[in-house]
Design goal:
Length: 442
Amino acid sequence: MNIAYLDPPYSRYFHKLCALLNRRTGGTTVALLSSPAYRLYAHGDATRVWKPGEAQPPCPVPPEFERAEWVQADPQRFGRVLAHAVQWFKARFIERRIDVCLLFSDARPLSLAAHIAAKEMGVVCVFFERGAFRLRTASLSTQGLNARFSIGLARECDHITGLVEAGLPARRPIERGLRRRFVAFMAANAIACALDPRRRTMQHKRYHPFNYIRIAVSQFLSERHLNEEHGDAEPSSRDRPTVILPLQLQTDSQFIMHSPFKHNQELVDFVVPRVLAAAPGARVLVKKHPMDVRSYHLPAGARWVEGNLARFYPSARLLVCLNSTVGFEAAWHGKVVLCFGESFYTDDPHIVRADTSDFESKLQAALDRDDDTDAGNTLKDAVLRYYQSPGDVWAYTQADLQHTADIVIQHVTGREHLAFAPDELRAAASDDHATASPREEA
């Protein structure tokens, strides 16, 4: 099984996982990168680095990605760059006879280009992301991630055993040297992008050191408060229910591409008055994302909370969110959850989906429902089985990688209609692209 992996998750997780997969199935590994800076994480694997360019005709952007910032900056030019990247991936898949492609996130421009090429070439894409249980699991799927993953469809895949509740790992220590290598990566990537600014087109964000300093401080403070008990949990009451509203990073791809609101302030201004109208006297508890450094105004009747939201679950009647992982956490604790956007758990029958036009009616029905811990446990077990693997992509053990290799093979061999491309398909594609293959860097 020949494997390619894209820009890795700022760790050596992909390098080590692919080495295990190669030992089990044979084949080779190549890292396909948007910047030479990512070689820092390839640790000696063969690498190919995309050389920026444009191609005609432009490649159409799938509707679910049209709102992405990296598209909106210059949609016409992005279509041409995307077409060039798709051609480049096809050429690399042919060159290395790739069967499987591992991608960290499906919401990056490089991932989109690789996925388009892979579908045409019959290459199986396995998408990874940091898991629903941070520092304990990674998310893994051939469907896609977050809004592109359906737990309902996954339940039809009996060949996937993944994790069970009893196997939920403890928190793992972060990979040694990870932060130091990331600083080196940012410096190397800044040089690469200064030499050719077009390289940023296939990168999902700018790597500004000041932003990461702010994030590091926010994460440090969040960790300090994570398990704090403030003593303000209240006994459950139908006369005065507690409603939790966790905010998300409004620069995150899940917010940008799936939110009906322009920003968090609009979300707060929409939800809080309607909750208070439906349940006069309700306690509305609003929590900012730990990495969010913006300031927001709270309407009367709402207040800020910090730390671990689980301490409020005994008193909460309902949690309202866009499509946050916090919503999944509340759901598997049996709480009623109302979501504005799709996520990996939102097609579960216990989750209430709403939009701005029917929010009031859905809200009232949700407030009238009772907790359902059995449904929550069923959802948790399904997510662990079909969507998680042991060990965060930043924090993992060798045993985690061994188990994850098993799960990857389950996903790949179970997708018969996406399995290895036949030689005649590869030959035809090679003929089509041999004379127009985009150049690459050594």
